[in-house]
Design brief:
By secondary structure, the protein is α/β, with parallel strands linked by helices. It has 2 domains: 3-220, Rossmann fold (3-Layer(aba) Sandwich); 232-496, Ribokinase (UDP-N-acetylmuramoyl-L-alanine:D-glutamate ligase), CATH 3.40.1190.20. The protein has 20 helices and 18 strands. GO terms for molecular function: ADP-dependent NAD(P)H-hydrate dehydratase activity; ATP binding; metal ion binding; NAD(P)HX epimerase activity. Its EC number is 4.2.1.136, 5.1.99.6. K(+) binds at residues 56, 128, 167.
Length: 500
């Protein structure tokens, strides 16, 4: 059965908002689904909603309002806390509507109030909306007592419905300190991983997956929600904790490796070293004092460089390789010999020409690789034309990623990112980004994110950030934008997403 993590579900919610489907509308849909489940379980009678201060409680407030308008139902809501402590605007809005909906509400400030409340024993059906997927750490009061009281009523034969996940149950792992025993769990959009855990079955009762109108594109295209899944820099972080990136490139071209390196810095890497042939080292160093430049031998990457590069690779988290290298025979052979030393690598441009089927097999399990080809490079990697139709192209990327064991980011009007199991599309970007250098920028962003995140997530988020930064640059420069304009907007996209 296909399931989803709580973090991924949160990302999809954010992407829905980005596409124009508001959190308020999603909450309305979720609440309506809960109300419908109550009606199916109880034709009429007294219904008690036990609500926390988060969005799980917000769903309950909506459901209570829906039921209150139906003859035969007496609806009551217990809020575990004060209304001023409700955590989101959407939940507070829906709680405020209850006073216009003939719903009796009770705000609980301590567990002693719960113990003397007759609302639990009077109810025919209780709805658990305390935590849902928002449970964190040890369960405190009054929530702990509320769970006990709900379970007591369940033992007495009352119907218990849990909203999204029985409160106390970890939505991803299924473990718990204590949890509500539900007869029915109504979870939203997709099954949550923790609900499938063997020890969780005793608590979930029947599980119903309710559709709440999530936009399909919020799940299949990248968006700002995906960025929220990236690891955030810790307050106690030290130099190097946010990533040490080694860019290997240059020779025939000097700008490409510099662009990748500057993009990696703007995407949050702590330290970026650029290893380039001696012939262009001075030029690359002149681009920015933020770059650490290491001179290699000769005018192109060559076998002599194998005497110093393995140690450099070992002292960095990710290698970004290929930008401006050229395709001299000795260069491509050196790339092949360097790859076994890499733990994580982003391969772009000329480095892709060094790849072959046997090399992929050799590296399997030892080096995590992200490749970032355009359509022509992808055709050469597969030794067949890149399909034109979106569906066939997506299938080709997914199959290639699965066969070779690499995360593949196929650049295009719509980028396609796949690890062979998961696939995402990205449509940020604009025609102005056909200018030279934007692919180098993408490689640098990818390397930076890859240093502290899983490969697939890093590649998908890099595609979004690169395109979104390009869109900001396009607003000012139009089709005259430069790759450096895109670099200048990376930090705005990251900051806007709340991760930098």
């Amino acid at each position: 059965m296909k399931y989803i993590s709580s973090l991924r579900m949160k990302a999809i919610d954010t992407n829905c908002s980005y596409l124009g489907l508001s959190p308020l509308q999603l909450m309305e849909n979720a609440g309506a689904a809960i109300a419908q489940s109550v009606k199916e379980k109880l034709g009429s009678g007294k219904v008690l909603f036990v609500a926390g201060r988060g969005n799980n409680g917000g769903d309950a407030f909506v459901a209570a309002r829906h039921l209150a308008g139906i003859p035969g139902y007496i609806v009551r809501v217990i809020l575990l806390g004060k209304d001023r402590d409700i955590g989101t605007e959407e939940a507070y809005h829906n709680y405020s509507l209850l006073k216009f909906s003939r719903v009796q509400t009770l705000e609980i400030r301590d567990s002693g109030q719960l113990a003397v409340s007759e609302l639990f024993s009077e109810a025919d059906l209780l709805v658990d909306a305390i935590f849902g997927t928002g449970v964190k750490g040890n369960i405190k009061e009054p929530e702990s007592t509320a769970i006990d009281l709900i379970n007591n009523e369940g033992k007495a034969g009352k119907i218990i419905i849990a909203v999204d996940v029985p409160s106390g149950l970890d939505p991803d792992r299924g473990n718990f300190e204590k949890a509500v025993y539900a007869d029915l769990t109504v979870t939203f959009h997709r099954m949550k991983a923790g609900l499938l855990d063997e020890q969780a079955k005793e608590y979930t009762g029947t599980i119903k997956v309710a559709e709440i109108g999530v936009c399909a594109d919020a799940e299949h295209y990248t968006g700002p929600g995906d960025l929220q899944m990236l690891k955030k820099r810790k307050l106690e972080a030290h130099k190097g904790n946010a990533g040490r990136i080694l860019v290997i490139g240059g020779g025939p071209y000097s700008g490409a490796p510099a662009l990748a390196a500057l993009a990696a810095l703007r995407a949050g890497a702590d330290l970026v070293t650029v290893a380039v042939p001696e012939s262009v080292a001075g030029i690359v160093a002149s681009y920015s004092p933020d770059l650490i430049v290491r001179k290699l031998f000769s005018s192109v990457l060559c076998p002599e460089d194998l005497s110093i590069l393995p140690d450099l690779i070992n002292s960095h988290d990710v290698v970004v390789m290929g930008m401006g290298l050229g395709r001299a025979t000795e260069t491509l052979e050196t790339v092949r010999k360097l790859l076994p030393f890499c733990r994580k690598a982003v391969l772009d441009a000329d480095a892709l020409a060094a790849l072959s089927g046997t090399l992929f097999e050799t590296l399997a399990g030892n080096c995590e690789i992200i490749v970032t080809p355009h359509a022509g490079e992808f055709a050469r990697l597969r030794d067949m034309e890149t399909p034109d139709s979106p569906e066939t192209r997506e299938k080709a990327v997914r199959e290639f990623a699965a066969e070779k064991g690499v995360v593949t980011l196929l650049k295009g009007k719509v980028d396609i990112i796949s690890d062979g199991k998961q696939t995402l599309l990205n449509r940020t970007g604009n025609p102005g980004m056909t200018v030279g250098g934007t692919g180098d920028v993408l490689a640098g962003i990818t390397g930076s994110l890859f240093s502290r995140n899983p490969a697939f997530l890093a590649a998908a988020c890099a595609a979004y950030i690169n395109g979104a930064a390009g869109d900001l640059a396009f607003e000012k420069a139009g089709n005259a934008l430069l790759a450096t304009d895109v670099i200048g907007k990376i930090s705005e996209i990251i900051k806007e997403a709340g991760i930098g």
